[in-house]
Amino acid sequence: MDSAEALSDAVLAIAAEHAVEPVLQKLVDAARELAGARYAAIGVPDGDGGFGQFITSGMSDELIASLGELPRTHGLLGAMLESDVAQRATDIRRDPRFRGWWPDAHPSMSSFLGVPIVARGAVAGAFYLTDKEGADTFSDDDQALIETFAAHAALAIENARLHERSRELSIVEERNRLARELHDAVTQKLFGVVLAAQSGAALLHRDAEAAGTQLRLVGELASEAMDELRSVIVHLRPPALESEGLAVALGKHVDVLRRAHGLAIELDVAGDHRVAAGIETDVFRIAQEALHNALRHAGAGHIAVRLRCEDERLELTVSDDGAGFDVGAVRSRRLGLTTMAERARAVDGDLELRSSPGAGTTVRLVVRP
């Protein structure tokens, strides 16, 4: 594979990632491979004399742990963040700027190639590559290739940051929505519980029958408030979906529902579960809605969730032994079913809904990412 093709493949691989830290890891891994370096790092300054992020490639987790705290932006490391000019050295240890941070456990390094990552006219980070494989030093071609790659890296980092900011805004909007729902529904019901309890206490010695009526109302209102809280729990988006993937997020969500509803929910997961972030989100939402319907409307005694992601095929099944319903009669009146179908279409998936009165319900989604 020639350098242009290798560069193209690296850029395409990184384009699918949206979170900053995974983007940085893919960038540094790709830079090390493109330049033929034994070790590589990518540093992003924190604006306060240190690195906000400093991610390596070519070192084991045990070695990284033994090095201790992140390096400061001094010496040759810092020099890369002060100029938009690449730096090369045959032996990094003989460079006059080589000083300061160098733990005893740090591997010995010689040849060096440093390339700044420039975004919007400012140095936003740098690639650090050491120990050229099969040669004493990095070549002009190596430098030109990494400089080209650094331009793509700047765009990838900026896009990932924009995506994370957008996600943060979405989280804030979701938090505000939940606050409104809690205020409009749960808070009002709990206020009713307080009033009914006070009324029941006042009537207890004067009119036992009326007091009993008020206390029964307390129980009904409390039960409704619990239903509203459970509904809110169903629509929460766990942070695990972004950081740990669909399988882990679904597992945590099912665990929350088990504890909230005291119901047996079976979860069966197999295969390689990491797929594109957009697909994970829609599949998770479909699973949420199917579980919500089974818990809220079906009166099910048992729910089974099955997730398979292997051989370029993702399959999600949520089935229950509840009351079931006439699909043709209900679909148009339940927004949740329509939303599931829309989400399935958004990921080019096939959604199948099987149910009939007294025979339970099965929701099955098949996606070929």
Separation of the first and last Cα atoms: 27 Å
**Largest sheet: number of strands, sense, barrel closure:** 5 strands, antiparallel
Give the spatial strand order of the biggest sheet: 2-1-5-4-3
What is the overall shape?
elongated
Strand content: 15-25%
The helix/strand class is: alpha+beta
What does this structure look like?
- There is one protein chain.
- With 369 residues, this protein is of the alpha+beta class.
- Helix content is 51%, strand content 20%.
- It is built from eleven helices and ten strands.
- The chain has helices at 3-15, 20-35, 61-66, 75-79, 140-203, 208-234, 240-243, 246-261, 277-296, 327-330, 335-346, and strands at 37-45, 51-57, 87-89, 112-119, 122-132, 265-271, 303-310, 313-320, 350-355, 361-367.
- The chain has a five-stranded antiparallel β-sheet, covered by helices on one side. Strands 6-7-8-10-9 form a five-stranded mixed β-sheet, covered by helices on one side.
- Strand 4 and strand 5 form a beta hairpin.
- Helix 1 (3-15) runs antiparallel to helix 2 (20-35), helix 2 (20-35) packs antiparallel against helix 5 and helix 9 packs antiparallel against helix 11 (335-346).
- The longest helix is centred in the middle third of the chain and has 64 residues, at 140-203.
- The model has no long low-confidence stretch (mean pLDDT 79).
